[in-house]
Amino acid sequence: MSKILEVCVDSLASARAARKGGAHRLELCSALAVGGLTPYAELLRQIKREGDLPVRCLMRPRAGDFLYTAEEIDLLCSQIRTLAQAGADGFVIGALTPEGDLDEPVMERLLAACGHKPATLHRCIDVSRDPVAVYRQAAALGLDTVLTSGGAASCTAGVETLARLLALREETKGPEVLIGAGVNAGVIARLRAELPGARAFHMSGKTLLESGMRFRREGVPMGLPGLDEWHIQQTDAGAVFQARKALDAEEMALGEK
Description:
The protein has 257 residues and is an alpha/beta fold. It contains eight helices and ten strands. The strands form two sheets. Strands 7-6-5-4-3-2-1-8 form an eight-stranded parallel beta sheet, covered by helices on one side. It has a two-stranded antiparallel ribbon with strand order 9-10.
């Protein structure tokens, strides 16, 4: 299977930067600062008008855990159908039971809403009781990708579990293991050396841009206290380019021989 560099974006500017840097695919969300929420259909249409880069939409109705109410599940299914009509190429979904297992009945509903579009299991696996068991469940449900840090705060801290998942992928011909959380060019180079078969990576490549506001009223947060209102997170094309270069390094070396 081909290598994948997926870039998570929550704005048109970030999508442009990811495309310029050489991303293979976008994960589109809103509110990346809280881990990502369901994106707006209008933003998806803007991005799709500018190019044919595949876009998978993150489906998450709120911040917090992945234990959803019946109303939230209904909302997710409705949002999936709306985004599919707006041009989504696939979806990023996930739901857990109170015990930390993959909620298969909910997943079946979400997949039914996705129709024939491909689906990724998102990082709910990283807060599940048994990531290996959840990977097997995802495979049985027909998801083609699992986004994971190996059950750790960062992918470099989750190497042991990532190795088990990559081995399981090879053994069962299961879903692609899309490695995320803290990914950059250096991490890609390191993990490709440490983990045979690591070939799919997920990053945001964020940088902080200074606000254009000259007048700034301090001490009036728009969200959680401590959040900086005067810097904007945006994907950096250079960071994506370097990550793509690290991912392609082996192929380039083989081509020179």
